[in-house]
Amino acid sequence: MTNLGTGNPAIRLENVEKSFGDHVVLQNVSLSVGAGQVFALIGPSGAGKSTLLRCINLLERPTSGSITVDGVTIQTDHTIKPKELAALRSRVGMVFQSFNLFPHMTVLRNIALPQQRVLGRSRADAEDRAHALLGRVGLADKASQYPARCSGGQQQRIAIARALALDPKVMLFDEPTSALDPELGLEVLTVMRELADEGMTMVVVTHEMQFARDVSDHLVVMSDGGILEEGDPHDIFSGPRHARTRQFLRAVV
Ligand code: ADP
Ligand code: MG
């Protein structure tokens, strides 16, 4: 669902740069994601996709540039106040390739505990919300199960529910299905598609070209730490402007 809205973008990156020592990993990256938009981020391994995603919630601190999420702006070359950092992070949910669930806690507690710790919700409220979200990702019957008893696709859906439980304004996904076989990956992609249809603002790093083409509103192709091209996914798939994009698409489609 495209919902560009008229207000400020949900996510805006301006001239983001990131180096590890002498190694420049992101160079002059600017990006603007409207509320309700779904961006797919593709490109070869090492292009900087994960680093860019991690910069959005400052899991990785950019060397320079500014990051805005839902009205909270951080100038990364200034001192960052803990309150600003917390405000930004509270707006961003993130789902990784590895699900990172707590193995010694039930599925329900995995989703409830962060709400209690981060948002100060009561245990009862947090568990109510966890039950509701488990229903939403199709796992209402798994509440009292332990993660190890769930399939990879189920664990990833639990990880999505856990992120949603903190009421993020935007969701970031870093190759959420690449550790899963295709059938289990599809369960996860279906949940992501529903989330997109409900109007969640999402940035998805993915190798799933079908998802990029059919679900995303906007495609961003990265290579060597920069944005090679961006635009309507169908346009880019049918007529990539850069030879590097063509080469990449030939290899993956
Ligand atoms: P992608 O997700 O597109 O495969 P990454 O963002 O993971 O790319 O990596 C981009 C580049 O940054 C790679 O050359 C990688 O080796 C380097 N890089 C990523 N994280 C670090 C780090 N913590 N320290 C040093 N180099 C890193
Ligand atoms: Mg990556």
UniProtKB/TrEMBL annotation:
Membrane association type: Peripheral membrane protein
Domain ABC transporter: 11-249
Localization: Cell membrane
GO molecular function: ATP binding
Key words of the record: Amino-acid transport, ATP-binding, Cell membrane, Membrane, Nucleotide-binding, Transport
UniProt superkingdom: Bacteria
SUPFAM superfamilies the UniProt entry points to: P-loop containing nucleoside triphosphate hydrolases
CDD domains, A to Z: ABC_HisP_GlnQ (cd03262)
Family (UniProt): Belongs to the ABC transporter superfamily.
The protein, known as: Amino acid ABC transporter ATP-binding protein
Organism, scientific name: Nocardioides astragali
Lineage: Bacteria, Bacillati, Actinomycetota, Actinomycetes, Propionibacteriales
